[in-house]
Amino acid sequence: MVSKFWNAEIETMPRKKLEQLQIERLKKTVEIAMGSPFYAPKFKELSITPDSIKSIEDIRRFPFTTKNDLRSTYPFGIASISLDRVVRLHSSSGTTGNPTVILHTQRDLDEWADAMARSMYCIGLRNTDIIQNTSGYGMFTGGLGIQYAAERLGALTVPAGAGNSKRHVKFITDFGTTALHCIPSYANRLAAAFLEEGIDPRNTTVRTLIIGAEPHSEAQRKRIEELWGAKAYNNFGMSEMCGPGVAIECREQNGMHIWEDNYIVEILDPDTLQPVPEGEQGELVLTTLNREAMPLFRYRTRDLTSILPGDCPCGRTHKRLARFQGRSDDMMIVKGVNIYPIQIEKILMQFPQLASDYLITIETIDDNDEMTVEAELAQATDDYGLLRNLSKEITYRLKSEILITPIVKLVGKGVIPQSEGKAKRVNDLRKNF
Ligand code: COA
Ligand code: AMP
Ligand code: ZN
């Protein structure tokens, strides 16, 4: 009989045994991380050794790791092993400050592909599927991460990449694509592209969508499912943890199983950093258990979610994460790209022609998410040639920094509304929740 699991032993492992596996893997991970110039002194100070780990609760003795730690140790300061064993890196956007860099050994890549293949299998994809990927290849982990996993699954894979919706339409039509990986907002854009061609997406061969990488509501998922006449499954990934393949919904579509053989999951109050009761919302904090180039301990994801109580009828024993409800920092995700307002501010401040006020507006226009950056001019001018060149240069510099193309509007002094207290810099008009 064909199994409904990719790895039945791991996916349905009784919780006690799973915990035992986590303890063993945590010990092993500590041993590896003793080679990290970042973690080794911290472990020494806190008397953390593999032998000192007796239960999963020992995780509370570990220090937290933050994105700032990744930035301040840029590029290789957290690595646990020597670079000759590292075969790939992925990096976040940005040139104004230090981006974050994540390193992988061949084993890390293999385990990552396996975890994402397991996720694909979990939603019913098989080697008979034709999987088309709309994520950017290169530094975005949604590109290569999905690619290697789909190949591991044995599916026919179409690495079409981001952009050029007409080409996606043609590929889906010509190749008979059965599954799409895309961010939820792009699922809408691509459906619109089909309709522009006079094709109803429901009449295509697409039956499954893997959607993730940005927050979206249950209503948005339903809309996508109706538009496509297909099932859309929420998928959570994060470059620091590997990329896609951290957690996915099963066919029950009720919470994302987080693969606990690979991660220790904590949900903490973002202010006190103390655990919240099961079912309550807090910040997701993850410890990697199956990575060697750059294990991370108690990594503060900044994503707000909760653990769904109870067992899942699918038989998988791994905990389920609720749909994400936002972040405990000011990171925005636009067109599948993570952007911090400070990145935009730093670029704007490089232009002496600008004053200090600016406003970022994000909205959905014609099924495409767009960002408008209004920046205040230091001095009024009606030299339109100068204004045009200036806004072109700002657009170019912003695009290099944040990877998407904003609409730049230069405005006179006093046009940007002033708010009392802390300036409001971001106006997100998308309805994600
Ligand atoms: N995925 C795939 N294609 C996307 C997209 C996304 N998230 N967002 C926009 N696009 C498409 C647009 O529809 C457009 O194609 P079309 O006009 O043929 O429909 C094309 O990309 C360019 O979009 P535009 O909004 O003009 O470009 P931009 O310069 O602002 O952004 C992108 C450029 C799309 C290349 C950049 O946003 C990107 O690389 N996004 C993908 C990020 C990603 O893969 N994240 C996955 C993380 S797992
Ligand atoms: P990246 O490291 O570029 O893959 O981005 C990771 C971030 O994307 C996460 O920390 C989340 O904020 C966001 N993200 C990824 N998957 C989802 C999802 N399914 N729902 C909501 N947000 C997501
Ligand atoms: Zn399930």
Topology, pairings included?
Blueprint: H1 8-11, H2 15-33, H3 39-45, H4 67-72, E1 86-91, E2 101-105, H5 106-122, E3 130-133, H6 141-153, E4 156-158, H7 165-175, E5 179-182, H8 184-196, E6 208-212, H9 218-228, E7 231-237, E8 244-249, E9 256-258, E10 263-268, E11 282-288, E12 299-305, E13 307-308, E14 320-321, E15 332-334, E16 337-339, H10 341-348, E17 354-365, E18 368-377, H11 384-402, E19 407-411, E20 426-428
Parallel strand pairs: 3-4, 3-5, 5-6, 6-7, 17-20, 18-19
Antiparallel strand pairs: 1-2, 7-8, 8-9, 9-14, 10-11, 11-12, 13-14, 15-16, 17-18
Helix pairs in contact: 5-6, 7-8, 8-9, 10-11
Assembly of the depicted chains:
single chain
Estimate the strand proportion.
Answer: 15-25%
Bound molecules: coenzyme A, adenosine monophosphate, zinc ion
Order of strands in the sheet with most strands: 4-3-5-6-7-8-9-14-13
Concise account of the structure shown:
This protein is an alpha/beta fold and 433 residues long. The protein is 30% helix and 24% strand.
Walk me through the structure:
- This protein has about 425 residues and is α/β, with parallel strands linked by helices.
- It folds into two domains: about 1-330, ANL, N-terminal domain (Rossmann fold, 3-Layer(aba) Sandwich); about 330-430, GMP Synthetase, Chain A, domain 3.
- Helix content is about 30%, strand content about 25%.
- It is built from eleven helices and 20 strands.
- It has helices at about 10, 15-35, 40-45, 65-70, 105-120, 140-155, 165-175, 185-195, 220-230, 340-350, 385-400, and strands at about 85-90, 100-105, 130-135, 155-160, 180, 210, 230-235, 245-250, 255-260, 265-270, 280-290, 300-305, 305-310, 320, 330-335, 335-340, 355-365, 370-375, 405-410, 425-430.
- It has a nine-stranded mixed sheet with strand order 4-3-5-6-7-8-9-14-13, sandwiched between helices.
- Helix 5 crosses helix 6, helix 8 (about 185-195) packs parallel to helix 9 (about 220-230) and helix 10 (about 340-350) runs antiparallel to helix 11 (about 385-400).
- It is globular, with a radius of gyration of 23 Å.
- The mean pLDDT is about 95.
- The site of coenzyme A has 24 residues, from helix 6, helix 7 and helix 8.
- Coenzyme A binds next to helix 6, helix 7 and helix 8.
